[in-house]
Amino acid sequence: MGKAIKVVITQEQKQTLLKLRSSRAGKNIGERAYYVLLSSSGKSIGEISTQLGRNPHTVRCWIKRYLRFGISGLIDKSSSGRPNQLREKVKEELNQLLSASPKEYGYQQSGWQINLLLDQLTKAVGSVSATTVKRALHEHGWVYKRFSKKPPLNAPSKEDKAAYIEKMVASLSKQKLEHEIEILFADESHFSNEPYVERGWFKRGEKKSIHTNKKSFVHDNFLI
InterPro entries this protein is in (predicted)? Predict the structure, then answer.
């Protein structure tokens, strides 16, 4: 059996504990304040634990924390400890990372992906889960979407395309008169000037554009 704990509080401290007991600061904190109040009224740890249906060790732990730290001792350790600090650090690092391109950090992608963010965050703040990162992104207004598309820098105009098609048809017609020809063709996406555009994390409402890397529509040769 543990050593008996004697709690002596002033009238002012009692009023503070009573307010905490009846406030909406949190059910757990209110109950812990009640442990202290009951103890100060002369009840033993065993009597308190029996009355409230709590483990004696739990009751003793919180009363001892109150005696050592005061009201702050009744607050969960995690409320002001590493979890909050980690969340703040993750937030700071995310803002810094997402304000730059992954390419500035040596990656090939144009948009930030969760695995890339995790890689950088692990280097900066230590172990962090994908769930923590996703929650932080959503809490602070980041959304996952596509880049705005821009045509390739060397994309041909509509006139260039029309001229090329006429040239190709004329060439095929001429060859057909001279000998039989076999034309091989691929899916129409082969000719697209709008290839797959990457996704990435953006601040809500923000737009980022990216030039596609697709080669020009106009080729010197075609398959026959």
Answer: Homeodomain-like_sf (IPR009057), Transpos_IS630-like (IPR047655)
Q: Is the pTM of this model over 0.85?
A: no
Domain's final residue, options 61, 79, 97: 79
Tokens for 39?
A: 């103890």
Domain end (from 79, 105, 127): 79
Q: Does the residue 183 lie in any domain?
A: yes
Domain assignment of residue 165, given as a range: 150-194+210-224
- Give the pLDDT of the chain (224 residues) as one tens digit per residue: 556 788 999 999 999 999 888 876 666 888 999 999 999 999 999 999 999 999 999 999 999 999 988 888 888 765 444 556 777 888 888 888 888 888 888 888 888 889 999 888 888 887 788 888 888 888 888 888 776 555 555 667 778 878 888 888 888 777 766 777 777 665 554 444 444 456 788 776 666 555 455 444 444 444 44
> What does the alpha-carbon distance between residue 63 and residue 65 come to, in Å, rounded to a whole number?
5
